[in-house]
Amino acid sequence: MFQFIFRRLSLVIPTFIGITLLTFTLIHMIPGDPIEVMAGERGVSPERHAELSAQLGLDKPLYEQYFHYVVGIAQGDLGQSLVTREPVMNEFLTLFPATVELAICAAIFAILVGLPAGIFAAVKRGTVLDHSVMTLSLTGYSMPIFWWALLLMLVFSVTLGWTPVSGRIDVVYWIDNTTGFMLIDSWLSGEEGAFKSAVSHLILPSIVLGTIPMAVIARMTRSSMLEVLSEDYIRTARAKGIAPWRVIVIHALRNALIPVITVIGLQVGTLLSGAILTETVFAWPGIGKWLIESISRRDYPVVQGGILIVATIIIVVNLLVDIAYGVVNPRIRHNR
Amino acid sequence: MSLLQLENLSVTFGNFRAVDNISYKLEEGEVLGIVGESGSGKSVSSLSVMGLIDFPGKVGANQLTFAGQDLQAMPEKQRRKLTGSDIAMIFQDPMTSLNPCFSVGYQIIEALKTHQGGSKKALKQRAIELLTQVGIPAPESRLNNYPHQLSGGMSQRVMIAMAIACNPRLLIADEPTTALDVTIQAQIIDLLIELQRKKKMGLVLITHDLALVAEVAHRVIVMYAGQIVESGPAAEVFRTPKHPYTQALLASLPESSSGKARLEALPGVVPGQYDRPQGCLLSPRCPYAQEQCHKVEPDNQGPLDRQVKCHTPLDSEGRPAA
């Protein structure tokens, strides 16, 4: 097991080099430069432009800039934002809890709805229930996130007035930033209605962000369950005379979960990339919104650093998924 | 009262009759061999006794009783109490019949817990006893093994331990040795027969292996295309087969073709869903078929304990009656 983890970790290094190269190249390929954007409509004199460029290190050749950037990363320094002059890491850490909170709630929604839906569809294969679950999940999967968000907002926030339109909590509350997680902070604050407000702000973004993972999980669970249900050992379990629910939940689900866990792990990528759109539409102050804004400002260090951190998270989660896989599946555990 | 009694049992999948009106009886402590080629309905008929035929399969019978209890009229829950305890089954491929995610101990104890209950310690003790009974060395350490750590023969022993866990009165063995090595086959059969004698179980042995049936079964049923074509005491059926199909099965054994370049074989294949012939189902392949064989389905002939489904049963010389 230890050897297995070590081997997986050694594969991470080339991935990192690839990511730094890719983000660096792509962001510098976008036309426009940060100084012009900062200056705005009024423009900036050529002398001032050159001065600022030299100050920010943007006058050096690209390979030198890249080298400087990589050396910084190796020392754990992601650089400073060109706009706010704050270290990228600090900005990230302030905003990250909001995204994590949203992603966790979306994942919970996706699993709580997707897993049972997939199981039911498989057990009731070929019935109306099965077809409706599969049609709904295909619809959910194909839905453009921003459009789905606007649609839900229109129905539930604007027309019905059930949920707030945007933000993390009503402006009337002033919540101390203890953990960065609004649900916990608002609970701790003890202010009346604060927690409820935080929850109601989370509902729509979580559903929007969780829709695609939910659809993927439902479809994967269904096909995996169908495969497992036709296995010989399911017949053996039934021949023992154990209750049907036990056959499904204990004997079938445990086996069916193996591929589903992998898929859930892969959805972390979808959640983080989906967060960019969801956060923008719902004005959710997380890293998705932060990245989008930094791209439009040509804030090179923020874009590079932000993407690198997000990529790291995805890599780590995938590694954890591989380990979880070994825990669920004895065949893998023993082969290592 | 017979242990198991079927009368006109049919299993249909849509329009297809996988099992077509079969009837047989099994007494307590009796070994019944069911032989026939693949797709002749041997396994499906046994699965229907276990109550394991799923939608869209349909089971119907005039009578389906176990020790006098009507299995068809029984509520689902009550029937599950019988399955796995009084009626148990072992399957063809032991390597895929054990759940790969659970240890051997868990799977045996689960069977015990479902039907008998008891303390954790007692259950574990009983599981160890069972593994000893089926001849698994170092049973205590084997309890924590996972199926992928066992060989095929070991897995089948575990399957047998699981099946006999609740002291069944009827054990159905569906080609228990087909997936195993030849050297292991004999051991598994010896074990099954030994357990059957010790526990006085009724045993239904489904197999392709005619020699095996001849050796261990009291009575034998020959199936073809979902029907029973011949039944009777094993020794008699094999010495003087009355049905042309049984005769052909025996002739196809390598032992019967010694000195010949090719093995004997019936031309053609078992009829499927769309090419079921009129009259006798064997008629297109039967060397003795006459005009009426192609038109009229034969009835079962002969006394109850020695039946044959043929218009012109063979005589003791192996020739069709006039």
Question: Could you provide a short overview of the structure?
Answer:
Chain A is mainly alpha-helical and 336 residues long. Chain A contains 15 helices and no strands.
Gyration radius of chain A, rounded: 24 Å
| Overall average residue pLDDT of chain B | 89
CATH fold field value of the largest domain in chain B: Rossmann fold
Strand order of the largest sheet of chain B: 7-8-9-3-10-11-13-12
What's the CATH H-level homologous superfamily of chain A? MetI-like
Number of domains of chain B: 2
Based on the coordinates given, report the CATH architecture of chain A: Orthogonal Bundle
The CATH class of the largest domain in chain B is Alpha Beta
Structural class by helix and strand composition of chain B: alpha/beta
Please work out how many helical segments of chain B DSSP would assign: 12
Number of domains of chain A: 1
C-alpha-based Rg of chain B, rounded = 21 Å
Distance between the termini of chain A: 6 Å
Instruction: Kindly provide the name of the CATH class of chain A.
Output: Mainly Alpha
> Which spans of chain B have pLDDT < 50 for at least 5 consecutive residues?
none
Helix content of chain B: 25-40%
The first-to-last residue Cα distance of chain B is 38 Å
CATH architecture heading of the largest domain in chain B = 3-Layer(aba) Sandwich
CATH homology group of the largest domain in chain B: P-loop containing nucleotide triphosphate hydrolases
| Oligomer kind | heterodimer
Organism (chain A): Marinomonas pollencensis
Keywords (chain A): Cell membrane, Membrane, Transmembrane, Transmembrane helix, Transport
GO molecular function (chain A): dipeptide transmembrane transporter activity
Transmembrane segments (chain A): 12-30, 95-123, 144-163, 198-218, 256-287, 307-328
